[in-house]
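Troubleshooting: if your tokenizer reports a length mismatch, compare your output against this known-good record of 193 residues.
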Amino acid sequence: MLNAPSGLDINLLPIEQTVFYQQFHIDSLKIIVADKQVDFAYRPRMGLYADGGYNSSFIATPLRNFGISAGVTVTVPIYDGRQRRMLHQKNNIAEQNRQNYRDFFSKQYQQQIAQLQQQLSQTEQLIEQTSTQIKYADGLIKAQRQQLVTGDVRIADYIIAIGNYLNAKNIITQNSIARLQILNQINYWNRKQ
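Known-good structure output:
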């Protein structure tokens, strides 16, 4: 029989420290950056440019083929048809949606962890009950083995007792596997960032 894997302890973290919650933090930062970009896009700007070059297919007059240009551009937003305010409102709505999704996820997460903990508790109780049944079945087999020698028990009853013992062992094995699967699911939902 294989030994149970180590490292299956349950240390429930606060939801804010789980890897699944990280996406809500990233989304919040994206919305903040988008909101600051709106303000940045409406600042006055000034640009300088310069250009120079040589353009000719004739070699006869090379000095006339040189060109230089320079310029200054100034952009001052005056009126945008309330686009700036609408972009800020759009970002506010995105933030509200993010908060609603975060709250919904938090509730779903708590329900999922609670359900898994309940399943784990029920599975462990079932393992304990079946272990008690195995003790009784083992005692019954030992008693019937002694009575079999004297002829007080039929072989069919002895075989049924062995079958019940093996069924109980199988139930413990299946519930132990289910317990490990539940622990794995709890640890999956509880991964650290």
